[in-house]
Amino acid sequence: MTAMTSSARPADPAGTAARPPLNRRLAEFGTTIFAEMSALALRTGSINLGQGFPDTDGPEEIREAAVRALRDGRGNQYPPGPGVPELRAAVTAHQLRRYGLTFDPDTEVLVTAGATEAIAAALLGLLEPGDEVVALEPYYDSYAACIAMAGGRRVPVTLRPHEGRFRLDLDELRAAVTDRTRLLLINTPHNPTGTVLTRAELTAIAELAVERDLLVVTDEVYEHLVFDDAEHLPLATFPGMRDRTVTIGSAGKTFSFTGWKVGWVTAAPALVSAVRSAKQYLTYVASGPFQYAVAEALALPDSYFDAFRADMRAKRDVLAAGLTDAGFDVFTTAGTYFITTDIRPLGETDGFAFCRALPERAGVVAIPNAVFYDHREAGAPFVRFAFCKRADVLEEAAKRLKSLSV
Hints:
four-stranded antiparallel β-sheet; about 15% strand; disordered N terminus
């Protein structure tokens, strides 16, 4: 072994002298705003209306179904890669009963570790480096990161306020599609704006996808949270879309068990196969006992879904009234459990600064919508609040926010 000369340098195992440790595709993504604001809520003792998780559990009989599965030894070891047969059958039964969509549980359903993994696996499995993905802006933050990890290029089409809600400009959507476009990434009901795409808007999206031979990944995790006159219409039900659409669903938002991380994909066999090819190298499998419980949850009677929706609508109304009284401009929430507000009537223009100061000013935490935009200036004055909390918590938050208008 030769001695190291005085001019020699030790090896740099991290390669930091040559380049930063982080993959350049992820360099633009730091710690999520949810982690920052949740930590701020904890530090200040504020009411956290930022991150979208309920503060109460879902149906007791479904929680007991998970306990029963654990005790019976179902799912305690690796479940089948595509998901347990009971859940795949329940997903297909749900899609048929609710929407008239028929899927083969063996070849057209894939269970995932929540919708977030479904999005990641779909984009990793369907994109080649350089492919363009047209996504509706503002968008859930994992969309941008997953497109980047797949080597794709995101092309945002911005939803803009119009007559009290956020609307899609169909001409802008058509103009965004090029010869390099591989797929459209659609989210309805839409987080964070609360928009539910209309039949006319979905018809135009479907016609564009067929005309340009595009794949569509559609995130429909809030399918059971539509209010008033809004209606959830799965894109896969539109002409020409059954075999080009990857539909993503999830148990977390519908049954208030977000920690269980049970999601699924329904699509034609070739598309499911592509998604599974990526998914098997992510988590491989997850949430074994919970899959059995979610299978029972999907078979709950319509009365459960109706009551769940009515409860969330009432909570929406409590928070919307409180925000209006506090001086915010409040946009209509037709779906999800988020309300987007405009802070300009309060004399504010910077959502980041507003949200970082809000815990000290009013003891409430919210999320600046600008984090969901590529065009940060378009989202600068908008702030999102979650209403999936107990009514007494929302009433207290409304009382605290009232101080902003004094």
